[in-house]
Amino acid sequence: MTRTQRVLWIAWPAFLMAALIEMVVFAFVDPHELHWAGETLGWSRQAVYTLAFFVFWALTMASSALTTLLSMSPWEINRCPVPPDQRPADCVKQPRPGAQGCQGCG
């Protein structure tokens, strides 16, 4: 799986959930009624909708990214991305068990 695929797998569902959360929240909340530190925001409805959407999107992406990170195997996290014959001396990580050319893995 490429990094681009992983990012898209995180961003697209998060986008859909942010849209759903936005619809549910603003079905019950009027943006002109929002206050911060006792003062009205003074923003247009569109500005509140836009900012809220991006906040919801960022939060749901963080949640999806954490889920993706926690679902990765130790081999995916610790593997050396360089082919064995081109590795520098400090990249001595072993291939995953059962991989071709794995000596003593099992």
UniProtKB/TrEMBL annotation:
The lineage of its organism: Bacteria, Pseudomonadati, Pseudomonadota, Betaproteobacteria, Burkholderiales. The keyword Membrane applies. It comes from the Bacteria. This is Uncharacterized protein. Residues 86-106 are annotated as: Disordered. The keyword Transmembrane applies. The chain crosses the membrane at residues 7-29, 49-70. It comes from Tepidimonas ignava. Keywords: Membrane, Transmembrane, Transmembrane helix.
